[in-house]
Amino acid sequence: MIVDEKLIEGKRLTWILRCPTKGDSEELSALRIKIDGETENLDREAGEGLLTSEDFKKLIYEDSISEKNLFLVAEVEGKLVGFARLQGNGLSRYRHKAEFGICILKEYWGYGIGKVLLDNILGYADNVGIKKVCLYVVETNTKAIELYKSFGFVQEGLLINDRIHMDGNYYNSVVMGRIID
Question: Where would I find the N-acetyltransferase domain in this sequence (predicted)?
Protein backbone atom coordinates (compact mmCIF):
# COMPACT_ATOMS: atom_id res chain seq x y z
CA MET A 1 0.00 0.00 0.00
CA ILE A 2 1.09 3.55 -0.61
CA VAL A 3 0.29 6.33 1.87
CA ASP A 4 0.61 10.08 1.50
CA GLU A 5 3.87 11.80 2.35
CA LYS A 6 3.93 13.67 5.67
CA LEU A 7 6.20 16.40 6.97
CA ILE A 8 7.08 15.59 10.58
CA GLU A 9 8.21 18.38 12.88
CA GLY A 10 9.49 16.45 15.85
CA LYS A 11 12.12 16.58 18.55
CA ARG A 12 14.70 19.06 17.21
CA LEU A 13 14.32 17.55 13.74
CA THR A 14 12.07 18.06 10.72
CA TRP A 15 11.81 15.08 8.41
CA ILE A 16 9.62 13.41 5.80
CA LEU A 17 7.65 10.21 6.33
CA ARG A 18 6.79 8.52 3.04
CA CYS A 19 6.66 5.29 1.13
CA PRO A 20 9.80 4.41 -0.81
CA THR A 21 9.99 4.58 -4.59
CA LYS A 22 12.05 2.49 -7.02
CA GLY A 23 14.57 5.32 -7.02
CA ASP A 24 15.27 4.66 -3.32
CA SER A 25 16.26 1.04 -3.82
CA GLU A 26 20.03 1.52 -4.05
CA GLU A 27 20.08 3.84 -1.03
CA LEU A 28 17.90 1.41 0.95
CA SER A 29 20.28 -1.47 0.23
CA ALA A 30 23.27 0.54 1.48
CA LEU A 31 21.29 1.92 4.46
CA ARG A 32 20.28 -1.55 5.62
CA ILE A 33 23.91 -2.74 5.58
CA LYS A 34 25.04 0.35 7.50
CA ILE A 35 22.31 0.04 10.15
CA ASP A 36 22.97 -3.68 10.58
CA GLY A 37 26.61 -2.85 11.35
CA GLU A 38 25.75 -0.17 13.92
CA THR A 39 23.79 -2.24 16.41
CA GLU A 40 23.32 -5.76 17.71
CA ASN A 41 19.60 -5.07 18.19
CA LEU A 42 18.76 -6.32 14.71
CA ASP A 43 18.80 -9.87 13.40
CA ARG A 44 21.66 -9.49 10.95
CA GLU A 45 25.29 -8.47 10.99
CA ALA A 46 26.38 -6.06 8.26
CA GLY A 47 26.18 -7.77 4.87
CA GLU A 48 24.18 -10.79 6.02
CA GLY A 49 20.86 -11.50 4.34
CA LEU A 50 21.83 -8.91 1.76
CA LEU A 51 19.00 -7.21 -0.10
CA THR A 52 20.27 -5.74 -3.35
CA SER A 53 18.84 -2.73 -5.11
CA GLU A 54 16.84 -5.14 -7.30
CA ASP A 55 15.51 -6.93 -4.21
CA PHE A 56 14.34 -3.60 -2.79
CA LYS A 57 12.70 -2.65 -6.10
CA LYS A 58 10.71 -5.88 -5.93
CA LEU A 59 9.74 -5.31 -2.26
CA ILE A 60 8.71 -1.72 -2.96
CA TYR A 61 6.51 -2.82 -5.87
CA GLU A 62 4.96 -5.77 -4.02
CA ASP A 63 4.24 -3.66 -0.94
CA SER A 64 2.71 -0.90 -3.07
CA ILE A 65 0.04 -3.26 -4.42
CA SER A 66 -0.54 -5.24 -1.22
CA GLU A 67 -3.43 -4.41 1.09
CA LYS A 68 -1.66 -5.90 4.12
CA ASN A 69 1.90 -4.59 3.65
CA LEU A 70 3.25 -1.12 4.30
CA PHE A 71 6.80 0.09 3.73
CA LEU A 72 7.74 3.51 5.15
CA VAL A 73 10.96 5.50 5.06
CA ALA A 74 12.24 8.42 7.11
CA GLU A 75 14.01 11.07 5.05
CA VAL A 76 16.08 13.94 6.48
CA GLU A 77 17.35 16.60 4.08
CA GLY A 78 17.07 14.27 1.08
CA LYS A 79 18.80 11.34 2.84
CA LEU A 80 17.10 8.15 4.04
CA VAL A 81 17.85 7.61 7.72
CA GLY A 82 15.50 4.78 8.59
CA PHE A 83 12.62 2.60 7.55
CA ALA A 84 9.85 0.38 8.84
CA ARG A 85 7.97 -2.41 7.18
CA LEU A 86 4.72 -4.15 8.06
CA GLN A 87 4.21 -7.51 6.36
CA GLY A 88 0.83 -9.16 6.43
CA ASN A 89 0.39 -12.91 6.26
CA GLY A 90 -1.13 -14.43 3.12
CA LEU A 91 -2.15 -17.71 4.74
CA SER A 92 -5.87 -17.98 5.54
CA ARG A 93 -5.35 -19.00 9.16
CA TYR A 94 -3.07 -16.02 9.75
CA ARG A 95 -4.70 -13.38 7.54
CA HIS A 96 -5.58 -11.35 10.66
CA LYS A 97 -1.91 -10.98 11.58
CA ALA A 98 1.22 -9.09 10.50
CA GLU A 99 4.84 -8.68 11.61
CA PHE A 100 6.92 -5.56 11.50
CA GLY A 101 10.39 -4.18 12.05
CA ILE A 102 12.03 -0.78 12.36
CA CYS A 103 15.60 0.26 11.46
CA ILE A 104 17.06 3.72 12.12
CA LEU A 105 20.60 5.03 11.73
CA LYS A 106 22.19 5.32 15.16
CA GLU A 107 22.90 9.05 14.75
CA TYR A 108 19.13 9.58 14.48
CA TRP A 109 18.14 7.66 17.60
CA GLY A 110 16.36 9.80 20.17
CA TYR A 111 14.53 12.08 17.72
CA GLY A 112 11.21 10.21 17.93
CA ILE A 113 11.48 8.74 14.42
CA GLY A 114 10.80 5.21 15.67
CA LYS A 115 7.72 6.35 17.54
CA VAL A 116 6.30 8.07 14.44
CA LEU A 117 7.08 5.07 12.23
CA LEU A 118 5.43 2.73 14.75
CA ASP A 119 2.37 4.97 15.15
CA ASN A 120 1.85 5.09 11.38
CA ILE A 121 2.42 1.35 10.92
CA LEU A 122 -0.12 0.53 13.64
CA GLY A 123 -2.63 3.09 12.38
CA TYR A 124 -2.43 1.52 8.96
CA ALA A 125 -2.76 -2.01 10.38
CA ASP A 126 -5.86 -0.97 12.32
CA ASN A 127 -7.42 0.63 9.21
CA VAL A 128 -6.97 -2.46 7.04
CA GLY A 129 -8.34 -4.88 9.62
CA ILE A 130 -5.14 -6.45 10.89
CA LYS A 131 -6.07 -7.66 14.37
CA LYS A 132 -2.64 -8.75 15.60
CA VAL A 133 0.78 -7.21 15.04
CA CYS A 134 3.82 -9.22 16.20
CA LEU A 135 7.52 -8.58 16.61
CA TYR A 136 10.69 -10.06 18.05
CA VAL A 137 13.13 -7.89 20.00
CA VAL A 138 16.37 -8.74 21.77
CA GLU A 139 15.74 -8.69 25.53
CA THR A 140 18.53 -6.17 26.16
CA ASN A 141 16.86 -3.55 23.90
CA THR A 142 14.84 -2.14 26.79
CA LYS A 143 14.16 1.23 25.10
CA ALA A 144 12.42 -0.53 22.21
CA ILE A 145 10.50 -2.83 24.55
CA GLU A 146 9.23 0.18 26.53
CA LEU A 147 8.20 1.91 23.30
CA TYR A 148 6.29 -1.16 22.14
CA LYS A 149 4.57 -1.49 25.52
CA SER A 150 3.49 2.17 25.31
CA PHE A 151 1.64 1.23 22.10
CA GLY A 152 -0.17 -1.69 23.72
CA PHE A 153 2.21 -4.55 22.96
CA VAL A 154 2.56 -7.27 25.58
CA GLN A 155 5.22 -9.89 26.06
CA GLU A 156 3.90 -13.19 24.74
CA GLY A 157 7.01 -15.26 25.23
CA LEU A 158 10.73 -15.46 25.63
CA LEU A 159 13.03 -17.37 23.28
CA ILE A 160 15.95 -18.47 25.46
CA ASN A 161 19.49 -18.25 23.99
CA ASP A 162 17.86 -17.32 20.70
CA ARG A 163 20.78 -15.40 19.23
CA ILE A 164 24.55 -15.06 19.46
CA HIS A 165 26.14 -11.63 19.32
CA MET A 166 29.64 -10.72 18.26
CA ASP A 167 30.79 -10.93 21.90
CA GLY A 168 30.13 -14.69 21.73
CA ASN A 169 27.31 -14.54 24.29
CA TYR A 170 23.79 -15.83 23.85
CA TYR A 171 20.82 -13.48 24.20
CA ASN A 172 17.09 -13.99 24.61
CA SER A 173 14.48 -12.67 22.22
CA VAL A 174 11.19 -11.29 23.49
CA VAL A 175 8.10 -12.19 21.47
CA MET A 176 5.62 -9.30 21.62
CA GLY A 177 2.16 -8.83 20.22
CA ARG A 178 -0.58 -6.21 20.06
CA ILE A 179 -4.14 -7.40 19.59
CA ILE A 180 -7.09 -5.26 18.54
CA ASP A 181 -10.50 -6.71 19.37
Answer: 26-181
